[in-house]
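Q: Structure tokens for this one, please.
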Amino acid sequence: MPHAEYIASLPKRHVGCAALFLNDKGELLIVKQSYKEGWSVPGGVVDALESPYAGCVREIKEEIGLDIPNLTFLGVQYERKSSNVEAPDEDVKELMESHDLDKDTAERVQEIMDDLGVDEDDAVEIEESL
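A: Here is the predicted structure, written as tokens:
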């Protein structure tokens, strides 16, 4: 299904999730998805009948290939994109964080961060998107 068609099929209140991974230096893991512009933390749209927690676990597996079952709820990000009551367009994103990773998983997250390596052009793009 084309991306625009997929987005059009979603409920007007979109529920998403995002996971934050910090290494020992306090650096945040960000990824560059193939389906959208720019950089972001791992996460995405929560599927129908899926909890935000389960969606976050699934998105982490899809985007960085890791099974991270120990997520901690951090908060909710809300954005209203339209004030039209007849056709509301809202985003609700639950933010999760992973901590107390076992040594192997922490090393794998660091490898992913090292492999992604942000060059100078990417750093400018990231800074402009903040």
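A few notes: The chain has four helices and four strands. The first strand starts at residue 13 and ends at 20.
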